[in-house]
Design a protein that fits this description.
This protein is of the alpha+beta class and 1077 residues long. It has 38 helices and 30 strands. It is found in: Golgi apparatus, trans-Golgi network membrane; Membrane.
Length: 1077
C-alpha cells in the first residue's frame, strides 16, 4: 500500500518534516495490512496536532486523503457513563432525530440539466415546485412548536406543574388565582435570459435583495433568440439550454445554448451575464427567459438560512439560577419531612411543603422581566437622539449590553455607496480635486489639435491612421498622456447611459437613435459598480462624455461637441479571481484596435511594462483610504485580433474547465501593456462612522466586516473607516484551494502579531473545512477581521462559528436582503433602513436609520437594560426567598406543620399592589447618565463579564433573604402577645416595610416615579388594613405597641445592610461611582 502513495521530493529545511509525513504513510511497510478506519484516524490525528509552524510542502496528495483526518485539536472524547452524563444523551437524541429527518426528507442529488425550449417532455431532470416557504410554523406544528419554545425554560414548566397541582383537593393550599397569571416585477425563478423588449438586446436588473449591491446590473440576452423576428418563434425553433448543477455561488454560471435546426447548428456560451436570478427585479423593459432552477434550487433560496428562536443570555442565566432554587426547594422540603419523622402520608406532606415553599421561585419573576423588556423597548423608540429606531422583538433588549463581536456589512452600512473621484497619477505628475481644471484644459487642447491635424490630413487626402508599433518611441507630452488616460477611463468600463422618456414619446421610439436626447440633464449612468459610475462621471466633468452605449458600440462626446464612435469587439468583466476587467474596441474613424484594461495593482503590476512608481503611489493612495485602479492599454493589429477571437470563441464553448481556458486565452494578450495612469476613488462613509467604530473598540467590542465586495474595495473601506488603524498591519490571506495551501497560509498568519486579517470567502471555506479550530483561534485574536466575497450563507456561518467557538454574544448589522441570514443567525440582529429597502430591517430585532445610532443603542440602552434586568430579577427572587424563609421558620417552630403562614389575599397582595410598583420601578434606575456612558465606553467592558448577575451576586441575595426572613419571623414570634393573629400582623407589616426599604437601598439614581411608587404602595397597604379583618386585629394595629414592635424588627433587618453598603462604597467603590463623583 505504501508503494502506491506518491511521495514528492522536498527541498531544504522542509525535508525533515516531510520525511516524518512520508514515514507515516509508509509505516505499515510493503504488503502490510491497511490499518482500520479508527486506527487511521488515531494515527492521523498526530498529523493534525502537529504545530502549524511546520512546513507543508509534502501536502501534494489527493484531497481525498484528508477527508478521513479528524479536525484539528479536538479534545479526547469522554467514554462511558461520564460521556453520557456530560452531554452524550443530548448527542444521541440529536443523532436519532437527524436520522429520522434524513429518512423522511431525503435530498436528491443536484445535477446539471438540459432544458428544451417548447418541449418540456424532453427534459429528463425534474424541477422541484417553484414555491418558497419562509414561514416558521404551519397548521400542524404551530401549537407543539409554541409550547416547546415556552416550556423548554424550567421556570415556565415549574409554574405549570405547580398550577395544575391545585386541582387536586389534597394538595390545595391556597386560592387557584395565586398560581395562574397571564404570561417593479420580481423574477420568480432562476432563468437564462432569452429575449427583451429593449432594442440593444440587454436590460438592467436590481440585485439589492440578493447580493446587497444597489447598482443596477447589465444582463445580455442570448443573441440567437434575440435576433428572432417575432416572440412566437421561440416555440418553433429546436433549441435547448445546458446548465450546470445548482450551486451557491451567485457570481458565476456556466452553460451553453444550442439550436439544432439551423445549418450549421448554433452554439453559444452562457455566462453570468446571461442569467436572471430569482429575487432580482427587472429595472428596464420586459424580459423572457427559460427556467433552469426552481424552488429550493434557486440561488436565493440556497443562500438563505432558516431563522432561529433567539433567547437572551440573561434569560439563560436566570434559568440556571431557577434550577438551583428548585434544588434548594426540594432539599428544604425533604428536610422538613425528615424532621417530621416520615409519619403518615409523608409523600403528600412532601408535596405540600413543595407548594408552601414554592415562592422560592416566584411566578412574578417572568412577569416582571417581560414587562421590563417592554419598557426598555419603549424607551429605545422614544429616544430623540436615535430617531426612527424600531424595536421588533421584546425578548432580548438585554443582549445589547452583552455583545463582544459586531459583524457588519460594508455597502450601505458603513458606506453611503457614493463614490467621488479624488486622484489621477501619471507617474511624473499627480492631479487632485483642486487641479482638475488642468486636466480639462489638457483634454480640450488635445482634441482641438487632433481635429486641426485631421482637417489638414483630409485636405491632403492622407488617411488619419497612426504609425504602427514598429515606429520609434517618442516621449509623449503631458497633454497627450492626460488625453490617453482620460480616453482609456472613458472607454474601459461597463457603464451604460440611460435617458428618461420625454413627454409624448412612446417606448418604441424612445431608443431610436434619431430620437435620442443627449442632454446632460436627462442622462443618468447605470453600472454594476459605483466605482465605474464615478469614473465615467469624472471623465464627463473634464470634457469627455459617454453619451450612448449598446452591446456593440460606444459613443463619446468631445469638449468640442464632436461624437466619437467606437465598436466594442470584446468585453472581459471583472471577477474576483482576475481582479481586473478589459475591453477591446475599434475606433470607427481610424480603424485602430486597442485593448484597454484596468484592475487592482496586485493584478496589474505584472502585466504592465516596468516602472518605478506604481507600487509606491498605490501604497500612498491606500493609506489615504482611496480605492485604486491601474489603467493600461495595448495596440493590436487586425491579424492579432482575429487570431485571438478564434481562440477565445473556442474556449467559451467549452463545458469543462471553461473558466481556466478562457483565462488562458485572455492572458495571452496581457503582455507588456503600456501603463497609462493610476486612479483614486473615495467611497463616502456614513456619518460619524469613524468615531462610532472607535467607541465600539474602546468598549471592548471586536468588529468584523463581512462583505460581498471584492478584496481591494473591502480593504480600502476598512482603512478609511478606521476599522483598521493607520498603524496596524494588514495580513491578506492568499487564495487557497487545498489543505496544504491552507496549512502554509495559516503558518504565515500565525507569525504575524497584532495585525488585521483580510480573507476571501473561497479561502475561508477551505480553511473551515480542514482547520476550523485554528482559523477561529487566530482570527479571534485579531483586532479586526475583513471577509470579502462572502455569500449570505457564509456570513451566517461565520456568525455561528464565533458563537460555537467563543461562547460570546454576537451582533450582526446590515441593510440588504443578503444580510438577512447573518442578522437572523446572530444573538442580536440590527437592520438599517437604507437604499436597499426594508428587508434587513424587517428581519432584524432592532431597526435603526443610521450606523452611528448603534453607539447609543449599545452604550446607553443596552448597558442600562442589562443592569436593570439583572437588578430586577435578583430582587424579585429575593422577594420570594424572604417569604419562603419566614415560612420555613414558622413551620419549624410549630412542629413542622405544612400549614401556610399567610393565606388568601395577603399572598396575592404581597406580590402585586403592596410591592409591585416599587420593585418594577427599578427599570428606571441608572448608575451613570447617558452622556457619561457615551463619553466612557470602557464602562461597557464590565458588562461582558456578567458580573451584574452571577452565582456570586445571587448567593449574596440569598444570604440577605435568609437573614432578613429569619429576623422578621423570629422577631415577630418573640414579640407577639397572646394571640397568633398578632404574629401575622407584625411580621407581614414588617415584611412590606422591609421590601420598600430594600428597593430604596438598591436604587442608584432616584426618579420621581420611584418616589411615587414607594408612597403609593405604602398608602395602598395602610388603606387596606381597614378591610383585612380576617387576618389582622384592627384594634391591635392601631396601638403604639404594634408600631414600635414593627419598627424595631424592620430596623434590625435593614440597618446592617445600609451600613455595609456605605462601607463598600467607601472602601471599594464601583467604577461608575468614580465618574459620578
Amino acid at each position: 500500500m505504501a508503494d502506491q502513495i506518491p511521495l514528492y521530493p522536498v527541498r531544504g529545511a522542509a525535508a525533515v518534516a516531510s520525511r516524518k509525513r512520508a514515514a507515516y504513510y509508509s509505516a505499515a511497510g510493503p504488503g502490510a495490512e491497511r490499518p482500520g478506519r479508527f486506527q487511521l484516524e488515531d494515527e492521523s490525528a498526530h498529523l493534525d496536532e502537529m504545530p502549524l509552524m511546520m512546513s507543508e510542502e509534502g501536502f501534494e496528495n489527493d484531497e481525498s486523503d484528508y477527508h478521513t483526518l479528524p479536525r484539528a485539536r479536538i479534545s479526547q472524547r469522554k467514554r462511558g457513563l461520564e460521556w453520557f452524563v456530560c452531554g452524550g444523551w443530548k448527542f444521541l437524541c440529536t443523532s436519532c432525530c437527524d436520522w429520522l429527518i434524513n429518512i423522511c426528507q431525503r435530498k436528491r442529488e443536484l445535477k446539471a440539466r438540459t432544458v428544451w425550449l417548447g418541449y418540456p417532455e424532453k427534459c429528463e431532470e425534474k424541477h422541484p415546485r417553484n414555491s418558497i416557504k419562509n414561514q416558521k410554523y404551519n397548521v400542524f406544528t404551530f401549537i407543539p412548536g409554541v409550547l416547546y419554545e415556552q416550556f423548554k425554560f424550567f421556570l415556565n414548566l415549574y409554574f405549570l406543574i405547580v398550577s395544575c397541582s391545585q386541582f387536586v383537593p389534597a394538595l390545595k393550599i391556597g386560592y387557584l388565582y395565586t398560581y395562574w397569571a397571564p404570561l417593479n416585477q420580481r423574477i420568480p425563478s432562476d432563468m437564462v435570459f432569452l429575449r427583451t423588449s429593449e432594442k440593444a438586446g440587454s436590460c438592467f436588473i436590481r440585485t439589492d435583495q440578493l447580493d446587497g449591491e444597489t447598482d443596477w446590473k447589465l444582463k445580455v440576452a442570448v443573441s440567437c433568440t434575440q435576433r428572432l423576428p417575432a416572440l412566437g418563434d421561440l416555440f418553433s425553433i429546436n433549441a435547448y439550454v445546458y446548465a450546470q448543477k445548482p450551486q451557491l455561488d451567485i457570481h458565476s454560471f456556466e452553460g451553453t445554448f444550442t439550436r439544432e435546426d439551423s445549418d450549421p447548428p448554433v452554439h453559444e456560451s452562457l455566462s453570468i451575464e446571461n442569467t436572471l436570478w430569482a429575487s432580482t427585479i427587472v429595472a428596464s423593459g420586459t424580459v423572457i427567459g427559460v427556467v433552469i432552477y426552481t424552488g429550493k434550487e434557486t440561488r436565493s433560496v440556497m443562500n438563505t438560512s432558516n431563522p432561529k428562536n433567539k433567547v437572551g443570555l440573561l434569560d439563560l442565566e436566570l434559568n440556571q439560577l431557577t434550577k438551583a432554587l428548585f434544588l434548594a426547594l426540594v432539599a428544604l422540603s425533604l428536610v422538613m419531612v425528615t424532621l417530621q419523622g416520615f409519619v403518615g402520608p409523608w409523600y403528600r406532606n412532601l408535596f405540600r411543603f413543595l407548594l408552601l415553599f414554592s415562592y422560592i421561585i416566584p411566578i412574578s419573576l417572568r412577569v416582571n422581566l417581560d414587562m421590563g423588556k417592554a419598557a426598555y423597548g419603549w424607551m429605545i423608540m422614544r429616544d430623540e437622539n436615535i430617531p426612527g429606531t424600531v424595536v421588533r422583538t421584546s425578548t432580548i433588549p438585554e443582549e445589547l449590553g452583552r455583545l463582544v463581536y459586531l459583524l457588519t456589512d460594508k455597502t450601505g452600512t458603513l458606506t453611503q455607496n457614493e463614490m467621488i473621484f479624488k486622484r489621477l497619477h501619471l507617474g511624473t505628475v499627480s492631479y487632485g480635486t483642486d487641479t482638475m481644471d488642468e486636466i480639462q484644459s489638457h483634454v480640450m487642447n488635445s482634441y482641438s489639435q487632433m481635429y486641426s491635424q485631421a482637417s489638414g490630413n483630409n485636405a491632403s487626402s492622407t488617411p488619419p491612421r497612426k504609425a504602427q508599433s514598429s515606429a520609434p518611441k517618442v516621449r509623449k507630452s503631458v497633454s497627450s498622456r492626460v488625453h490617453e488616460a482620460v480616453k482609456a477611463i472613458a472607454l474601459c468600463h461597463n457603464v451604460t447611459p440611460v435617458y428618461e422618456a420625454r413627454a409624448g414619446v412612446t417606448g418604441e421610439t424612445e431608443y431610436a437613435e434619431v430620437d435620442q436626447d443627449f442632454s446632460d440633464e436627462n442622462r443618468t449612468y447605470q453600472a454594476s459598480s459605483p466605482d465605474e459610475v464615478a469614473l465615467v462621471q469624472w471623465t464627463e466633468s473634464v470634457g469627455l462624455t459617454l453619451v450612448n452605449r449598446d452591446l456593440t458600440s460606444m459613443q463619446l462626446r468631445t469638449p468640442g461637441g464632436q461624437i466619437l464612435t467606437y465598436c466594442v469587439l470584446q468585453m472581459f468583466p471583472f471577477t474576483s479571481e482576475s481582479k481586473r476587467m478589459g475591453v477591446i474596441v475599434r475606433d470607427e474613424s481610424t480603424a485602430e484596435i486597442t485593448f484597454y484594461m484596468k484592475g487592482a495593482d496586485v493584478a496589474m503590476s505584472t502585466i504592465v511594462q516596468y516602472n518605478d512608481w506604481l507600487e509606491e503611489e498605490c501604497g500612498n493612495m491606500a493609506r489615504e483610504g482611496l480605492r485604486t485602479l491601474v489603467v493600461a492599454k495595448r495596440a493590436l493589429t487586425e491579424e492579432q485580433y482575429q487570431d485571438f477571437e478564434s481562440r477565445y470563441s473556442q474556449a467559451k464553448l467549452s463545458v469543462h474547465d471553461r473558466t481556466l481556458k478562457v483565462a488562458a486565452v485572455v492572458e495571452s494578450l496581457e503582455r507588456e501593456m503600456e501603463l497609462l495612469c493610476l486612479t483614486g476613488v473615495e467611497d463616502q462613509l456614513q456619518a460619524d462612522v469613524r468615531p462610532t467604530l472607535e467607541m465600539l473598540r474602546n468598549a471592548g467590542i471586536k468588529i468584523w466586516m463581512l462583505t460581498g465586495d471584492k478584496l481591494e474595495t473591502a480593504t480600502c473601506i476598512a482603512k478609511s473607516s478606521h476599522l483598521v488603524s493607520r498603524t496596524q498591519d494588514i495580513h491578506t490571506f492568499r487564495p487557497v484551494t487545498s489543505r496544504g495551501e491552507a496549512h502554509l497560509e495559516l503558518n504565515a498568519f500565525r507569525r504575524k502579531h497584532d495585525c488585521a486579517l483580510v480573507i476571501s470567502g473561497d479561502s475561508l471555506e477551505v480553511c473551515l473545512r480542514y482547520y476550523e479550530h485554528e482559523l477561529a483561534e487566530l482570527a479571534c485574536q485579531c483586532p479586526a477581521v475583513v471577509c470579502c466575497r462572502c455569500s449570505p450563507t457564509q456570513k451566517a456561518r461565520i456568525v455561528k462559528l464565533l458563537q460555537q467557538r467563543t461562547g460570546k454574544r454576537t451582533c450582526a448589522i446590515g441593510d440588504g436582503g443578503n444580510d438577512v441570514s447573518m442578522i437572523q443567525a446572530a444573538d442580536c440582529g440590527i437592520g438599517i433602513e437604507g437604499k436597499e429597502g426594508k428587508q434587513a430591517s424587517l428581519a432584524a430585532d432592532f431597526s435603526i436609520t443610521q450606523f452611528k445610532h448603534i453607539g447609543r443603542l449599545l452604550m446607553v440602552h443596552g448597558r442600562s437594560s442589562y443592569k436593570r434586568s439583572a437588578a430586577l430579577g435578583q430582587f424579585v427572587m429575593h422577594r420570594g426567598l424572604i417569604i419562603s424563609t419566614m415560612q420555613a421558620v414558622f413551620s419549624s417552630v410549630f412542629y413542622f406543620a405544612s400549614v401556610p403562614l399567610y393565606q388568601g389575599f395577603l399572598m396575592v397582595g404581597y406580590a402585586t399592589i403592596y410591592t409591585m410598583f416599587p420593585v418594577f420601578s427599578l427599570v428606571l434606575d441608572q448608575d451613570v447618565k447617558p452622556e457619561m456612558a457615551m463619553l466612557y465606553p470602557e464602562l461597557y467592558k464590565d458588562l461582558t463579564k456578567g458580573r451584574s448577575l452571577s452565582f456570586k451576586t445571587f448567593l449574596v441575595w440569598v444570604l440577605i433573604s435568609i437573614y432578613q426572613g429569619g429576623i422578621l419571623m423570629y422577631g415577630a414570634l418573640l414579640l407577639f402577645e397572646s394571640e397568633f393573629v398578632h404574629v401575622v400582623a407584625i411580621s407581614f407589616t414588617a415584611l412590606i416595610l422591609t421590601e420598600l426599604l430594600m428597593v430604596a437601598l438598591t436604587v442608584r439614581t432616584w426618579h420621581w416615579l420611584m418616589v411615587v411608587a414607594e408612597f403609593l404602595s405604602l398608602g395602598c397597604y395602610i388603606a387596606s388594613l381597614a378591610f383585612l379583618n380576617e387576618y389582622f386585629d384592627v384594634a391591635f394595629i392601631t396601638t403604639v405597641t404594634f408600631l414600635w414592635k414593627v419598627s424595631a424588627i424592620t430596623v434590625v433587618s435593614c440597618l446592617p445592610l445600609y451600613v455595609l453598603k456605605y462601607l463598600k462604597r467607601k472602601l471599594s467603590p464601583p467604577s461608575y461611582s468614580k465618574l459620578t463623583s
